[in-house]
Amino acid sequence: MSIPALRPGDRTPNLTFPDLKGRQRQLYLEVRGGPILVAATPNPNDGDGRKVLASLAKRAGALDKLGVHRFALMRREPDSSVDRGAVIMIDPYGDGMRLFRPLPEGSEDDADRPAAAVAALDANQRVISIFTTANSRDPVDDAIKVLEVEAKAAKAGAQRLVRAAPAMILDKLLPDALCDALIAAWKADNVEGTVNDGFKNVTDDTIKRNREHVVTDPEMQRTVAQQIGPRVMNEIQKVFNFRSPLRFEMLTVLGYGDDRKDFFAPHRDSLRSERRRRFAVSLNLNEGYVGGELTFPEYGPHLYAPPKGAGAVFGCEVLHEAKPVTKGQRWVLTTFLIDPK
After folding, report:
1. Domain housing 179
2. Of 175, 196, 165, 180, which Cα lies nearest the Cα of 268?
């Protein structure tokens, strides 16, 4: 079976290959917090592969100014000069390079992959965009434009914090089209939200006021789980050093409207009746509303408002709150990662 290419939002594996001197190099250990560029050039000495490497060397100064870490994957040693700031990795079988060179739709033949590609990654090795010689006249130039935006955004809004919640804010968990499909499902079928009183689920608008839709369509369940599962679990393993097997609880779309000032008061997601829940996922499906921020009262006053397709992941014992929506409508997908036993 052919190796599937990475998509925007996917985290790049910790690629480990020898460099030109035969030393093992690992992407994860080479980066230092800035944006990342990966060039995949199976043939570095001819055609598109050579052009991509020449373009990369030409723009080395601009990439240095942006603080971009560069990696170039290739099957063999190049016969011309390359970007001196790039870590050259020899990928003799091309497995790493296949991650960045998607097959055309309907093809299973590796010969159909683009000759070369350049991937723009964020500081956490998550794919922002991939440009190939099949869809870009200059993949390096297109990647630099994306990385300029990423570098600027990474520096914007930096604050000196004295307290912060033990929560991860992860972007690109779901694509826009899937967010819209989940909202459409909520609009077609929703009921008043409930809370667990220790024995059963009941309505209690002193604690929670919203409308909910439980995702029951098997295809939608599978699609959402396949999208967010690997992206969330990779981060849980890395950040919390938690590696026990987990599975998803039900997927629920929550709607918070301004007509009732919908909210969810401070609460914990570890059920009183049973404690299989380990991590909560709260994923925003839209933007354009006011209020509705997520906050963690035990860890300071900060308000968290991930953009569309992004979300927060945190332990189910952590106290948290969804502030009232004062203008517009907020939709959020919630689920829990639970012990499978």
Report:
1. 167-338
2. 196
